[in-house]
Amino acid sequence: MTGIVGRMREAFRGDQRVDADDLVARLDAVRRFLAAVDGQVPDSRLVTAHTLVERAGTRLALSRDHTVVALAGATGSGKSSLFNALARLDLSPVGVRRPTTGVAHACVWGPLDGASRLLDWLGVLPRHRFVRESALDADDETGLHGLVLLDLPDFDSVQRSHRLEVDRLLGLVDLVVWVVDPQKYADRVIHTSYLREFHRHRDVTLVVLNQADRLSATELPRVLDDLRRLLDADGLDGVPLLATTAVDQAGMTGLREALERAVAERQASLRRLSGDVDAVVAGLGELVVTDVPRDAPDEDTVRSLDRALAGAAGVPAVADAVQGAYRHRAGGTTGWPVVRGWRRLRPDPLRRLHLPGPAAGADQPAESLVAATSVPDPTAAQRSALGLAIRAVADRTGADLPAPWPDAVTTAARSRLDDLPDALDRAIAGTDLGMDRRPLWWRLVGGVQWLVTLAALAGLGWLLLGYALRALGLPALEYPRVGEVPLPTLLLLGGLLAGLLVAAVTRPVIRWAARRARQRAEKRLTVAVAEVGDMYVLSPVRAVLDRYGQARGALRDAAR
Q: In what residue span(s) does the G domain sit (predicted)?
């Protein structure tokens, strides 16, 4: 048996060292990933990553001088016998009645004090902790100093609490020795539920065929070959496979050498955590499988959103009011002074909307008029168009993102929808519509109108004075003449005709200028509502894309 075991013994793999600083950097990248996806990805998909970060931080903070090795196996595989044989003491109960081991037992090579906190974290009760330190065989056990060996309950136990304990400890230990026996080495449970799940932890996995003494010299190689085939199918190709027997210390040589090498390297805990990071990264990779969308949302989508926002904000109605207010105010300044008064009886279109009037810049800045305006509420069609535009932003931006990011983009695009109406109203009220001052040419034309009006009034007064003198029998006035026309008559008629002519000439100019004012106001209003759209719709969407990019970069760093 000793010769067979010696030929089948495989050295425990240690060709790939894990740098502690690199591992810490990878764990920090996982933390950054979790911070980036917080609130964007359901917590149910991040449980494993959160568990890894918490567990890895605790394990690295505990003793790095100890290597925690677990003996795991099914009922009757001889784990406890193997445990006692390695310790060379009867520590874990062995019996015919199954299951025999109900709780984990621990054997520590070296002082127990250094491993106490580690065992507390593992949850091994003090009464189930043993120390392998003897003056009689200290030299023989020196190679295992720093080993914390656990004998786990049976993973196929009829007691559910035993299975839960096994699953818990398998997630905490540094290295796992899977113990199988010749009768049940091909059992479906151990392969499908456990061994296949450890394919990313091949560097910290060891498989032993225990009770090899029950096989003949010709049967043992065939069983080992068949077991190797099953392990390769489980994704554990290259994992050391040893044959052991607890009844002969010579049959434990290969396993002891593998454990001594693992203890001496002090790499098992780092390799285990590195494998855990690999598993977590692989599981999270589907969340950030595509690149960050560039130039998203596209210009056409943004323009469509701006048009919908302008419609919902009442930009066309305000622009029409600006045009009407321009004509109203220009007519009041450049029109014939005799008929200007009746214009004041007509309401100013902008004032009706509670928008800044011509005196807003004097006593009260236009920016302070940010209360609710009287701009008409959007129609059902305009509200629907805005909803479709926001949905288009979300759909086109998140189209190439993996789930659940499209939903996160949609939620972000609609996150401030309730605040949008007030924000649009404030934007309209705070926009400089260019109507806070009168153009110079208004004043010049107004001055001309006053001059011709005064001329007409002077001519009228002159004529009335002459009429009054004649009525009183006083000498009549001699009016100066311009040709055949008396000067007072010329002043009266000329002033009236000139006023009407100036009004007729300036009317088309006012209409043209009013259209220009409307265009300028519409442009400014569109810019204002576009800024609202950027703040309330596009910025939250870009924030999600930024977090997606951060998550993708962090996961790339974690996969190094």
A: 69-210
Report the run of H or E that residue 481 belongs to, with start and end: strand 481-482
Q: Which long-range contacts (CB under 8 A, 24 or more apart) does 417-421 make?
A: 417/390, 417/536, 419/536, 420/532, 420/536, 420/537, 421/312
Do residues 5 and 245 lie in contact, with contact meaning Cβ atoms separated by under 8 Å? Answer: yes
Reading the block at residue 161, the tokens are 């609490």
Bond before 297 cis per omega within 30 degrees: yes
Distance CA 147, CA 109 (A): 5
Q: How far apart are alpha carbons 519 and 514 in whole angstroms?
A: 9
Enumerate residues 6+ apart whose C-beta is below 8 A from 105: 80, 83, 91, 92, 124, 128, 130, 150, 151
Global confidence as pTM: 0.78
Sign, CA torsion 141/12/7/81: positive
Q: Which CATH number is associated with domain 2-15+65-265?
A: 3.40.50.300
Ranges assigned E (strand) in 190-245 = 205-209, 241-243
Determine the number of helices (DSSP H) and then strands (DSSP E) in the chain.
Answer: 22, 9
Alpha helix (H) ranges present in 478-538? 487-533
Contact between 343 and 335 (Cβ < 8 Å): yes
Tokens representing residue 537 in the block: 């719709």
**Where do the domains of the chain lie?**
2-15+65-265, 299-438+508-558
pLDDT at 42 over 70: yes
Does residue 89 surpass a pLDDT of 90? no
Q: What's the distance, Cα to Cα, between the start and end of the chain in Å?
A: 44
Mean pLDDT for the stretch of residues 343-351: 74
